[in-house]
Every structure is written in C-alpha cells, then in structure tokens.
C-alpha cells in the first residue's frame, strides 16, 4: 500500500485518489512538523500576551468585535465546531470524506494555521485507521471556507457527531474508541484552523476532475465505435484540418480517433459511401477537444488549490497574524462551473450519436437495433433515458458561482457557492457516464449487425469491444434481458477502468 508524505506543497491529484479510493496511508514530513510547531508557538504567544487577534481572542464573523478572555479561548473553539455543524442532506461518499480529511491535513501541514502537532496527527490517524466522519453535502456557501461540512468533519475528533468505521455508522466517540484514537480538546485558534478552508469544495471537485479525465478518454473510444457502427468517414480526423486551427484539445482528439480506428474496415473514406457525416461524427475533435481543454485547465487549478493555504487569519513565518480572504472559494467555484459545462457537452454529443445508431431514418441498421421489432422495443427507450440525463445536465450546468447571498450580518457580503459548483459538476459527470454507457452498448449492438460482412475493427476499438462483449452479449430480443442490468454491467466496466485499460495497452490516448 502506498504511503503519501505530507509536505503541504507536493500533493497531486493522483495522490488524492490513492488516499481517497485506494486506502493509501498518510505521514507528516519532519519539515512540515517543524513548521507546524513554529506556527503554534506564535499563537500561544498571542494568547499569553492577551493580544486582540481575530479568531484567537475574538469572536467570529460579525462577532469579531467581541473580545474573548484568555481563559475562554479554548471553549471558543469547541463552541465554534458545535454551532457551525449544521449541514443538511445526504452524506458525502466515503472517498470524498477521505479526500476532505487529506486536503485539510495537507493545508495544516504547511505551518500557516497555528494548530498543535497533536491535533493534526489526530486527523491523520483518523484517515489512516478509517474513521470517516459523516459529513452532510449541503450547507456551505464556499466562503469563509466550507464551515458547516468541515465542522462535521471535526466533531468526531472531539468525541461528538457521527462517523463511519469499518463500514458501520456509529457515534463519533464510539468510532474513535474502536479505532484506538484519543479524542482531543481544541485549544486557541484550532477550531477555526480546522474549518476555515476550501477543502470540501476542492476535494469534491478534484475527484470529479479525475473521473472526467477517464470519461473524456472513454468518450473518444465510444465515438470511434459509433463511427465504425455507422460506417463513418475518417477523413474528418486528418491532422491537416486540425493543425490549421491549432486548438490543442481538437488536435489531440483527432489523433486519438485515427489511432483508435487504425486498420478498421468498418470506417470509410470520403466519397466511398457519402461525402460527409453529421456533426456528431464529423465534429468529434472539435467538441471533445473543447472539453479536453476545459478539463486540463481545471486540473491545473485543482492541483494549485490542493497545496494552498486557505485559512483566515494566516500565521506568517515572521510571526504576524494577518486577516485576509484565502478562504473564499471563487477561484475554484468558477472552474468547477466550467468543468460541469465541459462535461455536459460530452454527454450531449454522445446522446446525438446514440440517436443516429438507433433511428432507422438516420442509418441502414434495423430499427432500434433489434431483430424482433414490434414485439421487442430494443434500444428505443435507452435513448429516452439518455436524453433525460442530458436535459438534466443542462439544468445542472447553470453556473453556481454567479450567485451570492450575504451572510453574517453582511460582514460576509459576497460568497462563492463553490461547493454547489463542485457537487453539480460531480453529478453532471455521473450522468455523462451513463450516457456513454448507453452509446457503448448500442454501438457494439450495431457493429454485431454488420459482423457477417467480414469487417475488421480498429486497433483501439477491438479491445474495447472485447471487454464489453465479455460481460454483455448481443441482445437478440427483449425477453432475453433486463435492460438496466446490462447497462449496469458496462457502467461497472467504466468505473473499474477495464475498458480504458484494455484500449491503452493497444494505443496511447491523450487528453
């Protein structure tokens, strides 16, 4: 099992996935530990000298005007967590919770937050031993950090709230006891340091980006199979077309399509059967390419944020405490809105290819890809379901970041709604996955109707077809199957990345 060393500066998206989804353990680097110790000493000096500093010896938000006595500084931090833990709705999945814990620990390890080393080690121990706080999805404005959900993350550290341990939901205290992790009592600034950051929105969006990278590669594979099923024209992917536009994603996609279709006799050349294809086949490089560029841009922003300090106030190396606005989620809110739009477009073009596969007015295949039309509906309603997901994505793709509602008596008068942006991007990507699932299944069905003509699949499409046909067979008639179960099998192949892995052993795909 991989072990990730936290320095505060080197966490990658791939590291995040290893910890969140594959159980990699986490360890604090010695340099980071020393930075944390130095930062903590500054906070303790402020408390000892009874200086007035926001969040340490004052209340929060509008209550920053209220001075807190030295003896109440610790109670202030616990009160903060208890009152701010007011999230609502379904809980984040375990992988997102683990990502949240990891990114918060990484931010604290930079040594600008003023927590004690033992507090940070408690969070790391929970991650390593599998104590996962139950964190409701809803309730964050994405400014002043993800206050409500991060407070739910902290509750079990104090023996409060609820957590999952070894797959069972229980009280936070019971989970900590079972894992052998002592609960803690927060000291000055620690509550604020634990919850004043963008880690919920960043972690949710980061995992969505990772999934989007896999889906954008899969979308090229899916499109290539549809090109073969519809005997599409490969001239549209000629590099001479794309280099003169000079859009990176477009050129990469065209290259991917030619690699995938290399050696295919299903695919045709310009003028062989028709002069040109419909946009959903001909413009794959332009549409998929735009989404690739979107996803790459968002990934770059995410990896900056994974190693960012998003606290307020900041404990500087020089010993100053500075109030600022690094907790504001706007830099990530706008990019996650962008991610959702880019992903939605992949679902949109996929559904249009699906329509071309099943509509007898648009191809020379049996209507709705069934031998038994009339008695069997075949793939007719799969397009309905895909169209519903695409339409839902159009609603979800409305940007969250353009909205704001003032909070804390107008002290916090412009907020990001970045956590909503991240959650909706995640949901869009999940919907797109099912649309691509449906197109994959339909394309393989259509290809099988042409199998007796002796055609050969492409170098990259053959491995994809083989993996799918291992688990999902040609559908003779409706009474042979329950459609959702067949679709679920392909969705599982996407989730496990088996299709993508098989193809990338044959051809290298870019994104």
Automatic annotation (TrEMBL):
<keyword id="KW-0369">Histidine metabolism</keyword>
<dbReference type="GO" id="GO:0019557">
    <property type="term" value="P:L-histidine catabolic process to glutamate and formate"/>
</dbReference>
<comment type="pathway">
    <text>Amino-acid degradation; L-histidine degradation into L-glutamate; N-formimidoyl-L-glutamate from L-histidine: step 1/3.</text>
</comment>
<feature type="modified residue" description="2,3-didehydroalanine (Ser)">
    <location>
        <position position="144"/>
    </location>
</feature>
<dbReference type="Pfam" id="PF00221">
    <property type="entry name" value="Lyase_aromatic"/>
</dbReference>
<feature type="cross-link" description="5-imidazolinone (Ala-Gly)">
    <location>
        <begin position="143"/>
        <end position="145"/>
    </location>
</feature>
<dbReference type="GO" id="GO:0004397">
    <property type="term" value="F:histidine ammonia-lyase activity"/>
</dbReference>
<keyword id="KW-0963">Cytoplasm</keyword>
<comment type="similarity">
    <text>Belongs to the PAL/histidase family.</text>
</comment>
<keyword id="KW-0456">Lyase</keyword>
<dbReference type="InterPro" id="IPR022313">
    <property type="entry name" value="Phe/His_NH3-lyase_AS"/>
</dbReference>
<dbReference type="GO" id="GO:0019556">
    <property type="term" value="P:L-histidine catabolic process to glutamate and formamide"/>
</dbReference>
<dbReference type="InterPro" id="IPR005921">
    <property type="entry name" value="HutH"/>
</dbReference>
<dbReference type="GO" id="GO:0005737">
    <property type="term" value="C:cytoplasm"/>
</dbReference>
<dbReference type="InterPro" id="IPR008948">
    <property type="entry name" value="L-Aspartase-like"/>
</dbReference>
<protein>
    <recommendedName>
        <fullName>Histidine ammonia-lyase</fullName>
        <ecNumber>4.3.1.3</ecNumber>
    </recommendedName>
</protein>
<dbReference type="InterPro" id="IPR024083">
    <property type="entry name" value="Fumarase/histidase_N"/>
</dbReference>
<dbReference type="InterPro" id="IPR001106">
    <property type="entry name" value="Aromatic_Lyase"/>
</dbReference>
């Amino acid at each position: 099992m991989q072990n990730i060393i936290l320095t505060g500066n080197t966490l990658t998206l791939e590291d995040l996935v290893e910890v969140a989804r594959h159980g990699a353990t986490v360890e604090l680097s010695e340099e980071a530990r020393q930075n944390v110790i130095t930062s903590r000493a500054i906070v303790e000096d402020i408390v000892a000298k009874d200086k007035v500093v926001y969040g340490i010896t004052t209340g929060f938000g509008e209550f920053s005007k209220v001075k807190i006595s030295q003896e109440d500084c610790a109670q202030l931090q616990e009160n903060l967590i208890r009152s701010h833990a007011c999230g609502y709705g379904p809980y984040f999945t375990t992988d997102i919770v683990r990502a949240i814990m990891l990114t918060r620990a990484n931010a604290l390890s930079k040594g600008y937050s003023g927590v004690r080393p033992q507090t940070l080690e408690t969070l790391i121990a929970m991650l390593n031993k599998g104590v996962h706080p139950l964190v409701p999805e809803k309730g964050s404005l994405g400014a002043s950090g993800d206050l409500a959900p991060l407070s739910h993350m902290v509750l079990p550290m104090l023996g409060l709230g609820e957590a999952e341990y070894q797959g069972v939901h229980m009280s936070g205290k019971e989970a900590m006891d079972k894992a052998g992790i002592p609960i803690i009592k927060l000291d000055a600034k620690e509550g604020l340091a634990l919850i004043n950051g963008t880690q919920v929105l960043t972690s949710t969006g980061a995992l969505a980006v990772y999934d989007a990278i896999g889906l954008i590669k899969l979308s090229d594979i899916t499109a290539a199979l549809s090109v073969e099923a519809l005997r599409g024209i490969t001239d549209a992917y000629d590099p001479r077309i794309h280099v003169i536009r000079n859009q990176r994603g477009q050129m990469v996609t065209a290259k991917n399509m030619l690699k995938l279709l290399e050696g295919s006799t299903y695919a045709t050349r310009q003028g062989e059967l028709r002069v040109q294809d419909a946009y959903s086949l001909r413009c794959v490089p332009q549409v998929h390419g735009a989404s690739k560029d979107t996803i790459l841009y968002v990934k770059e922003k995410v990896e900056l944020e994974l190693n960012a300090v998003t606290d307020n106030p900041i404990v500087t190396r020089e010993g100053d405490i500075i109030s600022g606005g690094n907790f504001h989620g706007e830099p990530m809110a706008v990019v996650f809105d962008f991610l959702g739009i880019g992903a939605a477009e992949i679902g949109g073009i996929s559904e249009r290819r699906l329509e071309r596969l099943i509509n007898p007015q648009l191809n020379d295949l049996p209507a709705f890809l069934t031998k038994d039309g009339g008695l069997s509906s075949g793939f007719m309603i799969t397009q309905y379901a895909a169209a519903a997901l695409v339409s839902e994505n159009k609603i979800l793709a409305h940007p969250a970041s353009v909205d704001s509602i003032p909070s804390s008596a107008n002290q916090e008068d412009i907020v990001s709604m970045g956590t909503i942006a991240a959650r909706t991007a995640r949901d869009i990507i999940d919907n797109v996955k099912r649309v691509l699932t449906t197109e994959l299944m339909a394309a393989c069905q259509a290809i099988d109707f042409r199998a007796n003509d002796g055609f050969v699949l492409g170098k990259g499409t053959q491995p994809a077809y083989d993996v799918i046909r291992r688990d999902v067979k040609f559908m003779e008639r409706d009474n042979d199957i329950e459609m959702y179960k067949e679709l679920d099998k392909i969705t599982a192949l996407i989730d496990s990345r088996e299709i993508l892995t098989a193809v990338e052993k044959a051809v290298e795909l870019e994104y």
